[in-house]
Write a structure and sequence with these properties.
heterotrimer; A mainly alpha; B alpha/beta; C mainly alpha; A: mainly alpha; MetI-like fold; disordered C terminus; B: alpha/beta; 12 helices
Chain lengths: 319, 337, 299
């Protein structure tokens, strides 16, 4: 088991390298002269040349990449072209908000979405099922920011129950949380429902009934446990999507998260900032995926048995 | 001796979005304690539907019993409560399905799956005793009990089927419904599995309804036979009645004719031409009329009754065997003019 | 002698019906009322958008500013009211639809073509080629697609062409996986082996047998990609990275409307509902297609 987990962690490293390489290459395509951005348009040419030398922009691509990565692992992501502050500090103050929104989405999605999906599947075509399907269809068809705006219009402007902008109190997190969680919950609910429906039609469910098992045991002991496996694999992907979604939702609620930073930096061509923001987000998404994969290995007995039976075979051979 | 299983004029339909499918159209058959009845027919004739109806496992929203009774030890299963039915499933009657590859839950160990049926119906037994029984059953079907912590994917098809058999027989049921238990397996494994079923059946004195399309299997294992076509039993009797006799229902004759003959040389097999009628649009007369090489005018118009033939245990549903009766009727008509 | 007449028969009557695969799927597709509704709404919107020039004038309605006429509520003259520059909201929504549709389809073309090439190469050659290609795709998939699109746009600049390129590229990994798994599952089927045994050439096998059968899941994925693109482009425009003023686009219209939410919420409603309707109808169609093609879901 540890073997499998260790292997998955080892795999993460090339993935992270690959991701960082791709993002670095993409950002490298950005037109414009960083030296001019920093020093201003009217700066004298030799100052520009010196600045470019200082930033290491004349070095070949690979060397710049390697230098960037070696700096990154030590926590140095360069300095903002705009403010000169170390990028790392800026990102660290903002990252928590975005990650928190995404985490809330996933937790709410698991706690509400999965049971709702099970219920819907078990009572297929009932009123509850049909209305749940309609509601989730509606939600997944709405862009996150539109949902946010509707929530603001209803709860903040018309009813005046909750604040809409900024992060004054704990109340400020409610509407953004609902907006972020809604689409993740809706999509997880649909996934759970369709998986359950498929599983319930399997032969082994009929076998369980033929044994005389009560319906509750059939649904929870047999069907649900089998359905959870594919659903779990999807949770990791959903976190990545939720992260992307949070970035846009932050804009609507004026939350000082990573999204705002990213958008502003893009507008001002502050490449180190953009590079580091995207990199952080992508790597966090990969880490979550990895955790989900490892967790999956623990809960799928077929994978677990592969490794334990290898151990047992060793035992039997007298090892 | 009262019958263990007595099905009386059973009609079952499947309701789909498009049509009603008339799966069973007046099935009557019976089984004594310890008897093995072979139910023979081609795909789609209704064999599995009979088994599912007995266990009341027809798909909830689509399968309905529209007429008839199923008596098990005197109880009408169509009228029993759900709770009572659940108490009987796996306990007094159980089923072996045709596809072993998908019949077992992939994420439970095989030992747990055998244990489940024991725990469900023996609430008073202690854990150690149940574990002992699980080991016992596994040994009985020829699988070492050390493997009870293994998962279904670690077994071959034949072994999976034997686990299914172990589950089905763990509670010593009085009736075993075996739905083509060997069809999905290799021929060599088929013989083994069949032997396992038969040996256990003898040991426990279980009655068995063996569903198959293989007449050879019927000859080996069964006491009596029923031939089903388009949802009706068109011929029934003891194995001797059906196998030794030359006079049979034309369909049964067709089935025998389709078997390659090891003794005599023949250039081609003689299959039965055509296909079974669409169960959504059954003809008013005999269902086999379209394909019957010996059909008469009356066959398309009127359904034949089951007519006794010979020794008294043999029944055939065919107008050919009631020719004499028809002759008498026509004579009456002629003479009354 | 006897009343019963025995007729001698030669061959029994056999009736065989044949229905082509696509006809069967179409029949089942039609049966689902909801899905049909989705398709009709899609077609309605498509016609309204494509034929816009017939009943609307782009310049006067969507672009011309008329400050005195700003923020009008819906009326008989301006069905959806006017926006902050006095432009007719209805016309802007319709023309915005045209852009969304165009970008959506262009995105699909880009991702499908590249994705198909990558996916089919991987599926057909298997082994090392497959391994390498799919590892690379996995790395791309590790980056949430919205982020990838944002990164690409920030690097390339936000022209229409770059927008389509970025969104298309961000969808390539997913498309290539679908194409690959589709082709792989067909490739394994026995009738392909039978084809080879008959001596059919590889090219013919691919064109006549593999591709038509693989079309199904790919088609479903296409509708989903278009639906997703509509949302993505709206999101990108919303945060200012997509289509820029004065071209009407639902996302940027919503961005402007956000600032006017307190007093003129209707400006947010119309583009938003347009997005929801188009995505919903596309999703329903995709779901319906998928259900119609899945033989196991028959009731």
């Amino acid at each position: 088991m540890l073997n499998y987990a260790a292997r998955r962690v080892m795999l993460l490293i090339p993935v992270i390298i690959g991701v960082s390489f791709i993002i670095f290459s993409i950002m490298n395509l950005t037109p414009g002269d960083p030296a001019m951005l920093i020093l201003g348009e009217g700066a004298p040419p030799d100052a520009l040349v010196a600045k470019r030398e200082e930033l290491g922009l004349n070095a070949p691509f690979i060397r710049r990449y390697v230098e960037y990565i070696s700096g990154a692992v030590q926590g140095d992501f360069g300095k903002s072209y705009r403010t000169g502050i170390p990028v790392f500090n800026e990102i660290m103050t903002r990252l928590p908000y975005t990650v928190m929104l995404a985490t809330i989405s996933i937790i709410v999605a698991i706690v509400i979405g999965i049971p709702a999906g099970v219920l819907s599947a078990v009572k297929q075509y009932s009123i509850m099922d049909v209305s749940a399907l309609a509601v989730t269809l509606l939600i997944t068809s709405m862009p996150g920011f539109f949902l946010s705006m509707c929530l603001i219009i209803v709860f903040s402007l018309k009813l005046n129950w909750l604040p809409s902008l900024g992060i004054e109190s704990w109340k400020s997190y409610i509407l953004p949380g609902i907006a972020a969680a809604s689409s993740t919950t809706a999509s997880l609910m649909r996934m759970t429902r369709s998986t359950m429906l498929e599983v319930i039609r399997q032969d082994y469910i009929r076998t369980a009934r033929a044994k005389g098992a009560p319906e509750r045991s059939v649904i929870f002991g047999h069907a649900l446990r089998n359905s959870l496996l594919p659903v779990v694999t999807v949770i990791g992907v959903n976190f990545g999507v939720a992260l992307g979604g949070s970035i846009v939702i932050e804009q609507v609620f004026a939350m000082p998260g990573l999204g705002q930073l990213m958008v502003n930096s893009i507008r001002t061509k502050d490449t180190p900032m953009v590079l580091a923001s995207v990199l952080f987000a992508a790597i966090i998404a990969s880490l979550v995926n990895l955790l989900v994969d490892i967790w999956y290995c623990f809960i799928d007995p077929r994978l677990a048995s592969q490794y334990s039976s290898a151990r047992n075979a060793g035992k039997k051979a007298g090892v | 001796m009262s019958k263990l299983l007595d099905i009386n004029d059973l009609h079952v339909i499947y309701k789909t979005d498009e049509d009603n499918i008339y799966a069973l159209n007046g099935i009557s058959l019976s089984l004594e304690e310890g008897e093995t009845l072979g139910l023979v027919g081609e795909t789609g004739a209704g064999k599995t539907t009979i088994a599912l109806s007995i266990l009341r496992l027809l798909p909830e929203k689509t399968g309905f019993v529209t007429k008839g009774e199923i008596f098990f030890s005197g109880m009408d299963l169509t009228k029993v409560t759900d709770a009572d039915m659940r108490a009987m499933r796996g306990n007094d009657m159980s089923m072996i399905f045709s596809d072993p590859m998908s019949a077992l839950n992939p994420i439970h160990s095989v030992g747990d799956q055998i244990k489940e049926v024991l725990v469900l119906h023996n609430p008073n037994l202690k854990n150690e005793e149940i574990d002992k029984k699980v080991d016992e059953m596994m040994e009985m079907v020829g699988i070492p009990s050390e493997r009870k912590t293994d998962y279904p994917h670690q077994f071959s098809g034949g072994m999976k089927q034997r686990i299914v058999i172990a589950i089905a027989l763990a509670c010593r049921p009085r009736l075993l419904l075996a739905d083509e238990p060997t069809t999905a397996l290799d021929v060599t494994i088929q013989a083994q599995v069949l032997k396992t079923i038969n040996d256990l059946k003898e040991k426990i004195n279980t009655a068995m309804l063996l569903i198959t399309h293989d007449l050879g299997v019927v000859a080996q294992v069964c006491n009596s036979v029923a031939v089903i076509y388009a949802g009706e039993i068109i011929e029934s009797g003891t194995v001797r009645d059906i196998f030794d006799n030359e006079e049979r229902h034309p369909y049964t004759n067709g089935l025998f004719g389709s078997i390659p003959d090891l003794v005599n040389k023949s250039p081609r097999l003689t299959p039965i031409e055509g296909l079974m009628p669409d169960p959504a649009k059954l003809p008013p007369g005999c269902a086999f009329e379209e394909r019957c090489p010996r059909r008469m005018e009356i066959c398309a118009a009127q359904k034949p009754d089951a007519i006794g033939y010979g020794s008294g245990s043999h029944f055939i549903k065919c107008h050919l065997f009631s020719v004499s009766k028809a002759r008498d009727r026509d004579m009456e008509v002629l003479s009354s003019r | 002698m006897n009343g019963a007449r025995v007729s001698v028969v030669t061959a029994p009557k056999i009736k065989v019906k044949k229905k082509s695969q696509s006809r069967v799927i179409w029949t089942r597709f039609k049966r689902n009322k909801l899905v049909l509704l989705g398709m009709m709404v899609s077609i309605l919107m498509l016609t309204a958008v494509l034929g816009a020039d017939l009943y609307l004038n782009y310049e006067t309605k969507a672009l011309d500013q008329n400050i005195r006429n700003r923020f009008q509520p819906p009326s008989s003259e301006h069905w959806f009211g006017t926006d902050q520059y006095g432009r007719d909201e209805f016309a802007r929504v319709i023309y915005g639809g045209r852009i969304s549709m165009f970008v959506g389809i262009a995105t699909v073309i880009v991702s499908l073509s590249m994705g198909s090439i990558i996916g089919s190469l991987a599926a057909y050659y298997g082994g090392r080629v497959d391994n390498i290609l799919m590892r690379v795709m996995d790395v791309f998939l590790a980056i949430p697609s919205t982020l990838l699109a944002i990164a690409l746009i920030s690097a390339l600049g936000s022209s229409l062409f770059n927008l389509i390129l970025s969104m298309g590229i961000s969808q390539i990994p997913r498309m290539s996986r679908i194409v690959r798994s589709s082709i792989m599952s067909i490739k394994e089927m026995e009738f392909i082996e039978a084809c080879r045994a008959c001596g059919t050439s590889d090219a013919r096998i691919i064109c006549r047998h593999i591709l038509p059968n693989a079309m199904g899941p790919i088609l479903v994925q296409v509708t989903q990609t278009v639906a997703r693109s509509v949302i993505t482009i709206a999101s990108l425009s919303f945060i200012g990275l997509g289509i820029s003023e004065p071209t009407p686009e639902w996302g940027s219209m919503l961005s402007e409307a956000k600032n006017q939410m307190r007093y003129y919420p209707h400006l947010a409603m119309f583009p938003g509902i347009a997005i929801v309707l188009s995505v919903m109808s596309l999703t329903l169609m995709g779901d319906g297609l998928r259900d119609a093609m899945d033989p196991r879901l028959r009731n």
